[in-house]
Amino acid sequence: MASTPAPTVSTSHTLRGDLRPSEYFWRDHQQWLESLGYTLSSRYKPNWIPSWQGTNKKYYHCDDGLAPDYSHVLDAVRVSDGKMVTLKQLSTKDHPNEVEISQMFSSPELAADPRNHCVPVYDVLTPPDPDIMLLVLPLLRKYNDPPLITVGEVVEFLHQVFQGLQFMHQHHVAHRDCMNLNIMMDPSAIYPDMYHPRSPYRNRNLKGEAKYFTRTERPTKYYLIDFGLAVKFDADDTNPTALPIRGGDKTVPEFQDDETYDKEQNPFPTDIYYLGNMVREDFLQTYPILEFLTPLVTDMVQDDPAGRPTIDEVVDRFVKLRSKLPFWKLRARLVDPEETGMIKFLKNVIHVFRTANFIFRRYSAIPTPVS
Questions:
Q1: How distant, in Å, are the alpha carbons of 191, 192, 271 from that of 204?
Q2: Could you tell me the pTM of the whole model?
C-alpha cells in the first residue's frame, strides 16, 4: 500500500472557503436532493455556518470548507446504502442526447456486457428548473491518478478503453470527445477506504493521506464518460455523418480547415484519432518502453480520416501486439526519461522487490478485474 502527499492547497478562489456563486445551484437544491435520498456537504445547507468559524481550524481542513473543482459536478452520499456518488448537472438544451445515450448503455442488457465501459447511470433526477437534469453516477477518479506503474498495467488500461469504444461503435454511437479527461477509473478497488471526493489525496475525514494499492494488486475498471457530444445513428445507416464539433482535444486534423468544418463528416474515424492521440501524448511521448504501440498509434492519428483503422481493426491489432509481449516486458516499470541518478536507482530497486512479491503472490502481469 502506498500514499501520496497532500498537494499544496490553493486559496486563490476564496480566502475563507466561502460559497462560490457557481455553487448556488447546489445550495438552492440541497433540500430537494435530500428529500430524494441524496445528502450533500453541510456547506450547501440553508443558513450554513462554517464549521471552522470561531475556531483555530483552517477552512481547507474541514469538509464544508472544500468546493468542487467543477461547479456542475458534485459529490453526494446516497442515503439508502451510504454509497458515495457523483451528481452531474447538465443542460438538455446544450446536450440533448446525453441522458438518452447514458441510459441506453446503462440498460440491464447492455450493462451486463463486460465489454461495456460506459459510465453507469444510477438515476436521473429532474429538478423544477427548465432544461436541467441531474445524472447520478458513481464516484470516479482520473484514470492515471495514481500513475500506472508497469507495461502490463498500461496494456490492461488500453485493452479496456479500446474495447469500450468498440462497444459504443458496435451500437452505432460515436463519442466525439473521447480524450484523456473523459476516461476515468473506478477507484474502489485500489482505494478500499476511498478518499475525500473534494480533496482526493486525503482520506475521507481529512485527517491523513489517502492510502492506495497498485493496479497489479487490485485490478480496476476504466470508464468512458461524458456523452454530451455523443451521437447515435440508425443501425442501417451505411454512411453516418454529422456536423463536426470540437471536443477537448483541439488537434483533430479534419477540424483544422474552416472550409470543411461546416460540412458533415463521419465522426467514427475522429474517435479513433482521439484515442490514438491520447496514447501518443500520455504514453508514447514519455515512456520509450512502449515503442511497440507506435505503428498502431501512427495509423490511428493519420491526417486522412479514411486512412485510419476502424475500432474493430484497432482491437484486433492490439490483441495481437499484446500476445507477443514477453513476461519480463509486461512486468517492466514505466521509467520517466527525466529520472536520473539515485532516484532512478532507488525506484528500480523498489520495483524489483515489489515485482518479486507480486510474482510470489501470483498477481497477473496484466491486471484484469473480475467482471
A1: 11, 11, 36
A2: 0.93
